Amino acid sequence: MLGVIILFAVPCAMFASSSDHELWRVSVPGACFALIWIASWKAWRKRAGKRAIALERDADAKAELLCGSQVTLSALECMVTQGFIDAARFHALQDRFR
């Protein structure tokens, strides 16, 4: 959340504090905004990948808790054959249940 605030605050502060020259009023804050956005986007992509893996593990654990290991494995096997999930996820969960 702090990153998003900084993403908008830095260009706005530069725009408000800059002199009356057109270059400083428009181009520099716009360029700073673009650079900060690109840097944040790369960090968010990396974090989103890690978060997706954690959410998959959590979903598998909750499915096992609610339905039991055999039913969960059967459902995941069906999802693998239809191509909804990766086979690696299924095999990892299968190894965990054994």
Characteristic terms for this protein:
4 helices, mainly alpha, rod-shaped, about 90% helix, single chain, about 100 residues
Structural commentary:
The protein is mostly helical and 98 residues long. The protein has a domain at 1-51. It has four helices and no strands. It has helices at 2-17, 22-67, 69-82, 87-97. Helix 1 (2-17) packs antiparallel against helix 2, helix 2 (22-67) crosses helix 3 and helix 3 packs antiparallel against helix 4 (87-97).
Structural class designation: mainly alpha
**Beta-strand proportion:** under 5%
Over all CA atoms, what is the radius of gyration?
A: 23 Å
In round numbers, the mean pLDDT is 79
**Main sheet properties:** none
What pattern of helices and strands is seen along the backbone? HHHH
**General form:** rod-shaped
Distance between the termini: 41 Å
- Number of helices, counting only DSSP H or I runs of 4 residues or more: 4
What is the percent of helical residues? over 70%
Tally of extended strands?
0
Runs with pLDDT <50, length 5+? none
